[in-house]
Amino acid sequence: MRYLRYLALPLIAALVLTSAGCATATSASSLTRLENARTANPSSVAALRALGIAYYKRQRFADARSVLDAARKLDPKDGVTALYAGLSAEALEDYAGAKDAYNTYIQVGKTRSVRNDIRARLVALSRTELHAAAKSAIANEVRIAAEANDPRAVAVLPMTFSGTDQSLAPLSRGMSDLLINDLARAPELRLLERDRVQAMIDEIALSKSGATDAATSLRAGKLVRASKVVQGAITQTGARNLTVNAAIVAVATSQQQGKDVQSSDVLEQIFTIEKNIALGLFNELGVRLSAADRAALEQRPTRSLQAFLAYSNGLVAEDEGRYGDAARFYDQARSIDPGFSAALQKSQSAKSAQQGSQVTAAKVESGLKSSAEGATVDAAERGVSASSSTGVGSTLASAVGDINPSAANSVNTNTGGTTGQQQPQTPPTTRDAAAEKTGTDQPAQKTGQVTIVIRKP
């Protein structure tokens, strides 16, 4: 008796797989079933979710997004719905919508490996979003030019570098980064993110098929809706001397505001040079610093020129999308100066961006396999509106449990060991506890029903 029951287990599994294969072969009818289920019960989250997944699988991303958004409104805590809404939005290049849906999945999703992949993907997606926003701004340049900008918004543009030692050229990015952090100390100003400004400059340069220049930088300031831009240049004067010039330009008039700000010193005093430039810019902007603000301004992220040069190289690599190189430069800066906290933050971000750039939609979906959420997706592909909390695997386990409680545990392929890793199953060699007590294979009268539907391929 017991032998026959165990023999039935692989047979049931085989029948389920066979029926799944037939359903895949009739994908059109599967989709029709799901559409009919949605029509019959438009308030069913399971029906909407399954139909949305089916649309996504068929690359009908707009349809998938519409249906999945409706499901999300009904159940904001359904992880599978949020995940596929994010995948659909990203396919439609709606990066803000994708980020919103992905963040929801991180909060409510059940599959740990997928949550980790989505976290990394979000970092890489931010850069993609910045460049998409820049392209959109260029396409709508006439309308943007007619709109008023925030009078407090200031964009610090990358400085130019001229000199014989090109290994110092990355300091132009590092100097701008320092100025952004220092000018942001004034509550009267709203400093725009360096990454956003750089993305705009890159897109303008691509559209012109040429290098950036002063006109490009000013145009970028207009497109990021800055009221003022800070332009500057670093000039190497002699082997170990630098001169830095900076000026403020009003975006609306393209006219310089106030006087040039200049500071010169030996290379090793680059941080003193930057502080002098920051103070000069505050003066030209009409910002008066309190004693406390001025004292805070004297803080320096590092006192090592070599660490700062490595950090500046990291900024260049990151701007070019070379996240692995960027992370190595930031780590180098940290090894030179372990107290360089900005380098640590940048290193972590670059590593996440590198990992995220390798997270494709296919990888995300692959991560769902052998999980309860994956069973929900599999059911949708077969035209079934399954509950995300049960899925095909759990339904099979429940059915077998009705027939043979002691054998039901062997159906679960995701218990113990590494999450998502299938464990080998072996039938028990002894009778269950109830059988031991009663001396029979049927300690209690328990009945169950298994309905197996086999569709013709």
What ranges have pLDDT less than 50 throughout 5 or more consecutive residues? 1-26, 389-446
Look up the CATH topology of the largest domain.
Serine Threonine Protein Phosphatase 5, Tetratricopeptide repeat
Rounded mean pLDDT score? 81
Shape estimate: elongated
CATH superfamily of the largest domain, please? Tetratricopeptide repeat domain
Largest sheet: 6 strands, mixed
Note the run of SSEs as H and E: HHHHHHHHEEHEHHEEEHHHHHHHHHH
CATH class of the largest domain: Mainly Alpha
- Determine Rg (CA atoms, Å): 30 Å
Number of domains: 2
If helices are DSSP runs of H or I spanning 4 or more residues, what is the number of helices?
A: 21
Count of DSSP strands:
6
The structure class reads alpha/beta
CATH architecture of the largest domain, by name, is Alpha Horseshoe
